[in-house]
């Protein structure tokens, strides 16, 4: 171990041990974007208030996510003796007094909110956390510190194996580091799965100087928040990963490009970089080794295509974030036309583990071809929107039932989107696919960065297609006619179908667009039609209903159904009239009716007067202008 | 976010940024964080500082969704456009809010009191469907609830 690093680590371990031995109860609250949305800041304020009021001497600390996003705020309570730690969920501010009374004052547990015992013995009421169905099968390696350490404190990171991997890498030459990463089988976590070691080797063997590393933390796929969980929960892991990559590839500078929508991740990454620099782990002459590497946290400004690696490079360079034409590839000409390597957050974050524990240990966890663990978030029509870390390989159905808690209601799951708006849709029959890369590729889709969105039969396939195509249209950089014009055209056709103007030629029209868009420059245009392509195949009957029968079985497409008053005299009707945002509910002499031309199908009336309003297929579908021609 | 800045204030604000170093976005963020939006004068100041043209800077400002060329409204409803929110009725919520506020996405009232903004999913999908009012999550919305919220915002002085 490097002579300067060892004392830093030893010191951190001593500091952590001293903190743990304070003799006070320790409360550690998950503080991230998800928990803040559910009131974690108010919970922390309440803990302070109650502790002050009752004169309780407790240590209060923050930490990253346990993954229980749907049940935030979560927190752990560790006894003063340090022998027992219990995880609690749904601890909103109004439950704090009760919690502190039980745990701090009485020294017992509050089973009503307890999830599991992290440390110590189970009780009849509270099982071990490790045996909780949500934790079962998870292998929390990247997330090992989440729930335990303070993400804004490098000392905590250093006390838990942090920078040991970097320490090992410092004693190896670049080829050996590359070989270790290659041996591990680490593939790019953004979805491509390209071996990270090979990318690093491209950069290592590049001839121009200086070389740059870029961490792609743009996480633009709506429904994916795995990178956010990691940046907000253990930012040093990413800093250390990039340091290791820098040693392997002789890079001088690194950029961490974080999307604008993640202000807390930006802040925590910046704190992490600053603290690493203070410790001499970044900057010039790192730990006296003569090596120089420094990191810049770079804030995006809201553009999906900036997640594409060359769009991202242009964005840092100071241009519009338009994807470049490849070749040249970033390894040849990236930032400022110098050799550059772009990896996803999670790809870099695995490097410290590989270097610390060795590639054999790292890859042993998965039976699939894809090695190591992968973080996933599950959302949509599920009971428990959450974040997990699991080895590749389980069936989608199993993770849906076990981690996401199954369908949100008694409606059946109709399908899922495997990874972002370009990735396509899979029908429920595909729930038996495994979470590995190949099965999706074979179907013409792909497993993306980890955000899986489930939908049930309240969703309409045509509407989902229009949604994802509208997104692709909005986010197209505009360079290619195929992509810019093609997505626009697809949205037009889909809108027309949704408003009742579909006709049989639309199948050919959409299939034509599927064929043409692949001639676009970057993946954005090339994959923009994936949803339509896969939906046309898997949900054909629903398209036929829309186009030929003018019927939307999910009653989502606005032109294909209408609202009607079915129970005159319902006391709630006045309220329905009042809530209608467009004045579409008319009343004359106590009789209510819906003026169809004003109705935007928002459903507010049915929410307030469920027994009085009904939906029905549209009696006469109006002829939509341009339907025949367009 | 006070009054209109002078040319000198803008120049000082971006003085530390340099050409050719990836400083365009940071400079624009600095301006927006200080004044809430990026004015024409600010675009010129940034262009001068970075030794480039106002056209290039303007091109960037308009390319990125989060840069604004107008002062933000006092109360802003940001609507989540993400998939979980949509599956939970987000599109109907958008339509209802647009009709209530009589504004399209991206619009604001003439007096600048309120506006409606398109937001991206930030992974708080567990609160779907949601909007943010000046950054604060309002989750688990019903359409009726969204209409009431929009009416309140519209009526508030
Ligand atoms: C439109 C578009 C958006 C993308 N968005 C992201 C993103 O948000 N995060 C990311 O890591 N990669 C994204 N990618 C993939 C990147 O171009 C690149 O392949 C990736 O960062 C490589 O990282 P990896 O090898 O570590 O997986 C996107 C690609 C496209 C075409
Ligand atoms: S495919 Fe679309 S996003 Fe990609 S370069 Fe072409 S226009 Fe831009
Ligand atoms: S669906 Fe919406 S617009 Fe139509 S009548 Fe009901 S409340 Fe009014
Ligand atoms: S879809 Fe609205 S927060 Fe994710």
Give the tally of β-strands of chain A: 18
Named CATH topology of the largest domain in chain A: Rossmann fold
Biggest sheet of chain A: strands, sense, closure? 5 strands, mixed
Q: What is the CA–CA distance across the termini of chain B?
A: 20 Å
Provide the CATH architecture of the largest domain in chain B: 3-Layer(aba) Sandwich
**Helix content class of chain A:** 25-40%
Rg calc of chain A:
27 Å
Strand content of chain A: 5-15%
User: What's the domain count of chain B?
Assistant: 2
C-alpha geometry of chain B: elongated
The average pLDDT score of chain A comes to 96
CATH homolog superfamily of the largest domain in chain B: Glutaredoxin
The major β-sheet of chain B equals: 4 strands, mixed
Structural overview:
The complex is a heterodimer of chains A (630) and B (157). The longest helix of chain A has 18 residues, at 481-498. The termini of chain A are far apart. Chain A is α/β, with parallel strands linked by helices. A 5-stranded mixed beta sheet of chain A has the order 2-1-3-4-5, with helices on one face. Helix content of chain A is 38%, strand content 15%. Chain A folds into 5 domains: 5-129, Glutaredoxin (3-Layer(aba) Sandwich), CATH 3.40.30; 154-362, 3-Layer(aba) Sandwich (Rossmann fold), CATH 3.40.50.11540; 373-456, Ubiquitin-like (UB roll), CATH 3.10.20.600; 461-549, NADH-ubiquinone oxidoreductase 51kDa subunit, iron-sulphur binding domain (de novo design (two linked rop proteins)); 561-617, Alpha-Beta Plaits, CATH 3.30.70. Chain B has 157 residues and is of the alpha+beta class. Chain B has helices at residues 7-13, 24-35, 40-49, 54-63, 83-87, 90-101, 143-155, and strands at 75-80, 114-119, 131-133, 136-138. The site of FE2/S2 (inorganic) cluster has 12 residues of chain B, from helix 5.
């Amino acid at each position: 171990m490097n002579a300067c690093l060892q004392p830093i680590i030893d010191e951190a371990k001593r500091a952590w041990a001293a903190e743990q031995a304070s003799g006070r109860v320790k409360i550690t609250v998950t503080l991230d974007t998800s928990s803040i949305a559910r009131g974690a800041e108010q919970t922390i304020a309440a803990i302070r208030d109650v502790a002050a009021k009752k004169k309780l001497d407790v240590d209060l600390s923050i930490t990253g996510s346990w993954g229980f996003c749907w049940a935030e705020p979560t927190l752990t309570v560790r006894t003063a003796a340090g022998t027992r730690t219990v995880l609690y969920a749904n601890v909103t501010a109004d439950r704090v007094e009760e919690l502190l009374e039980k745990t701090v004052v009485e020294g017992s547990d509050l089973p009503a909110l307890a999830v599991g015992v992290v440390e110590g013995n189970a009780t009849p009421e509270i099982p071990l956390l490790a045996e909780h169905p949500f934790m079962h099968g998870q292998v929390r390696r990247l997330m090992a510190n989440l729930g335990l350490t303070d993400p804004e404190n490098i000392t905590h990171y250093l006390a838990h194996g942090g920078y040991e991997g970097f320490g090992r890498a410092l004693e190896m030459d670049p080829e050996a580091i590359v070989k270790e990463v290659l041996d591990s089988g680490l593939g790019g976590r953004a979805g491509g799965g390209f071996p990270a070691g090979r990318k690093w080797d491209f950069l290592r063997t590049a001839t121009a100087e200086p070389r740059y590393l870029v961490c792609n933390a743009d996480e633009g796929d709506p429904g994916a928040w795995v990178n956010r969980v990691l940046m907000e929960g253990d930012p040093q892991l990413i800093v250390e990963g990039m340091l290791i990559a820098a040693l392997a590839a002789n890079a001088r500078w690194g950029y961490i490009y974080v999307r604008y929508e993640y202000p807390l991740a930006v802040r925590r990454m910046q704190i992490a970089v600053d603290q690493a620099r203070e410790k001499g782990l970044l900057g010039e002459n790192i730990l006296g080794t003569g090596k120089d590497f420094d990191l810049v946290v770079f804030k995006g400004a809201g553009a999906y295509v900036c997640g594409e690696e060359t769009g991202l490079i242009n964005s840092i360079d100071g241009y519009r974030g338009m994807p470049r034409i490849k070749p040249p590839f970033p390894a040849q000409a990236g930032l400022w036309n110098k050799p550059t390597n772009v990896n996803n957050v999670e790809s870099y974050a695995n490097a410290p583990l590989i270097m610390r524990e060795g590639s054999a240990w790292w890859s042993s966890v998965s039976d699939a071809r894809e090695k190591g663990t992968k973080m996933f978030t599950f959302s949509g029509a599920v009971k428990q929107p959450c974040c997990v870390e699991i080895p590749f390989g389980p069936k989608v159905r199993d993770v849906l039932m076990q981690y996401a808690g199954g369908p949100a209601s008694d409606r059946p799951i109709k399908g899922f989107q495997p990874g972002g708006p370009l990735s396509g849709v899979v029908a429920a029959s595909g729930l038996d696919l495994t979470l590995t890369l190949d099965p999706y590729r074979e179907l013409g889709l792909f497993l993306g960065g980890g955000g899986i969105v489930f939908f049930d039969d309240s969703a309409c396939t045509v509407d989902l297609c229009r949604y994802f195509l509208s997104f692709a249209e909005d986010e197209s950089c505009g360079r290619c006619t195929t992509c810019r014009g093609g997505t626009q055209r697809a949205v037009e056709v889909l809108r027309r179908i949704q408003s009742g103007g579909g006709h049989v030629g639309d199948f050919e029209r959409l299939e034509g667009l599927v064929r043409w868009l692949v001639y676009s420059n970057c993946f954005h245009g090339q994959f923009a039609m994936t949803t339509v392509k896969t939906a046309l195949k898997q949900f054909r009957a629903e398209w036929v209903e829309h186009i030929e029968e003018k019927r939307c079985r999910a009653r989502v497409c606005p032109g294909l159904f209408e609202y009607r008053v079915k129970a005159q005299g319902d006391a709630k009707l006045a309220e329905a009239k009042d809530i209608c945002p467009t004045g579409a509910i008319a009343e004359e002499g106590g009789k209510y009716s819906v003026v169809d031309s004003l109705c935007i199908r928002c459903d507010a009336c049915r929410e307030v007067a469920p027994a009085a309003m009904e939906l029905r297929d549209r009696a006469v579908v109006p002829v939509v202008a341009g339907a025949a021609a367009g | 976010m006070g009054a209109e800045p002078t040319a000198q204030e803008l120049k000082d604000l971006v003085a530390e940024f340099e050409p050719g170093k990836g400083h365009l976005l940071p400079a624009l963020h600095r301006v927006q964080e200080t004044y809430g939006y990026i004015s024409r004068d600010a675009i010129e100041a940034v262009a001068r500082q970075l030794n480039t043209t106002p056209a290039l800077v303007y091109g960037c400002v308009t390319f990125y969704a989060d840069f604004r060329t107008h002062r933000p409204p006092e109360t802003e409803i940001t609507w989540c456009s993400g998939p979980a929110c949509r599956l939970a009725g987000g599109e109907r919520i958008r339509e209802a809010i647009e009709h209530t506020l009589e504004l399209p996405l991206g619009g604001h009232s003439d007096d600048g009191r309120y506006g409606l903004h398109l937001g991206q999913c930030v992974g708080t999908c567990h609160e779907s469907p949601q909007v943010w009012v000046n950054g604060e999550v309002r989750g688990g919305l019903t359409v009726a609830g969204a209409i009431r919220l929009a009416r309140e915002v519209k009526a508030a002085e």
